[in-house]
Amino acid sequence: MITQAEEQLQEEFDRFIEFGSLLDKRSRRYIVHYLQVKLSLRDTLPTSLDDSYDRYFSRALDRFFEGGLLSELCRDHIRLSAQVAMDILHWLRRAYNKIREKNPFEDEAQRLRVATVMPLRDFVQRNYILTTYLGHQYEREVLDSEFYAYKFEQILQKRSYEALDAPAREEMERVLHDLLAQWDALLSAKLLKHQLEVLEEEQESFSDLLESKAQEFHKLQSLLSPFADYAGRFWDLSRELWQEADFDLLARYQDLLEKEDAVRQLVDMLGRMREAEVVTEEETYEKTIVRKQWIEDVQSRAELTGIHESNDLSSLLSSEVSLLSHPDTETAFLKKYAEGALLTFRYEDRQLVTSEHHFTEVSQRVKLKEKGPFIVCVDTSDSMRGDAEQVAKVICFAIMKMAASENRRAYLINFSVGIRTIDLHDVASSLDAIADFLRMSFRGGTDITLALHEVIRQLQGSTYRDADVLVISDFIMYRIEEDILSRVRHYQQNQGVKFHSLTLCDDPNAEVIEQFDTHWVYDPARREIVQELAGKLRGIVKR
């Protein structure tokens, strides 16, 4: 079965072949075929073309994939394969356009074009200008301009064009044609050499970028293994490369998460609080059946179809009318008329009648709703420094991985005196923000008001309307404004939204935490506390 990524990639190949400006269509087809082999989309190489550009682009593609890592990644991830292919096609167009736009020999090429179309009459008067120019451009071993100057002098013998006879003019044309042919070949060789040098520079930098991106992607794949397919969206050649510090940061939290099995259990339980639901949808629609049928019309006489017995005097046969011609048979006619037994012509006509039948039908469709989203608010104030900060970051890292692996939405809100938000649904666009969050230092005061304002704003939208909310904090804060609390209670009571709190200290503000549906306390000194939280949470999920 062809995937959407494969279909898009094939469309891109077809568009490049049919409408590309690179070389000619035959060469573009050859390049696409060669690239498909490199991406493991074809098994056999195309028939080689005897063209310098085609050979160069083939070698360039070989170099892009020579390390093996990029080929391996593309083979394992069709979406990444499509992105790499489109990046390479884009590079081909850009590199080819660049070498065509920047031509250092444009002045010489223009002189050659002028000399090619110059009438012989004008050239006879100016031949010394051309030979002098070529003498400055090329060494005598490459192009012997002095030889051609001597030949022109011999033919002309200081005569004007009008004084030349036909053989002399033909000789002049022949020598000039030979000179222009040599000049054109030398100029084409210079231009090709220059273009290939520019292409080599472009190809070298692009090859280095591809290799760096492949290495970066490979590292991210190992760090974010539960959702490698989503990490594929991270491939973006326009984006700057990550620093080693970013990989070290993710690796450190990956190690912490692997050691904190209880934290993973806790996040798993959070994820199950809004598991996918089976819902039944009903669709009511009006249905109309249109029928067409032929119906006989006895009142119309469009076609004679036979003879039958009736008392229709207007359709009498002449034999029946003849009964009225004699008194002896008139009584027989009247008797047949009374009995409806007169022989009459039978006529028939049909009409096409259309009828419509309207009725209502109800159909039911069962579908699986996507797993419910959740919103996580993390306290990043100064009082959270130390073990509480570490636990909060590990939990958020785990939530990020779960959101990506289950293709569900999660919204992260960091709050102290202000807020910062990260939508964790699209991991590729969120990785930089996540790394910044894991790197940041917790400081400032604690103000949960803005965070709850943002929670309510998200609950009002369609994306996070069904979300549950988790607040991770030490809850060393003042009371929450009554206006915010009333809106929180509205969503708790009317929308079924659950507000959960995870306290990372042993002395929280009781007036604040009592506003939450569920409340847990995490004590870093008691490592088993997370198992207890997960157990409690599992009980809620089962209810």
Side by side, the strands of the main sheet go 7-6-5-8-9-10
Tally the beta strands. Answer: 10
Rg, nearest Å: 44 Å
Largest sheet report? 6 strands, mixed
Number of helices: 20
CATH secondary-structure class of the domain at 267-275 and 372-542: Alpha Beta
Write down the overall geometry.
flat
pLDDT < 50 runs, ≥5 residues: 226-232, 241-245, 533-543
Strand content: 15-25%
User: What CATH architecture of the domain at 267-275 and 372-542 do you see?
Assistant: 3-Layer(aba) Sandwich
Which topology of the domain at 267-275 and 372-542 does CATH recognise? Answer: Rossmann fold
What class, by secondary structure content?
alpha/beta
Helix content: 55-70%
Report on the architecture of this protein.
With 543 residues, this protein is an alpha/beta fold. Among the domains are: 267-275 and 372-542, Rossmann fold (3-Layer(aba) Sandwich), CATH 3.40.50; 282-359, no CATH class. Helices cover 55% and strands 16% of the residues. It contains 20 helices and ten strands. Strand 5 (374-379), helix 15 and strand 6 (410-415) form a beta-alpha-beta unit. Helix 7 (120-137) runs antiparallel to helix 8 and helix 17 (449-460) runs parallel beside helix 18. The longest helix is centred in the middle third of the chain and has 58 residues, at 166-223. The radius of gyration is 44 Å and the shape is flat.
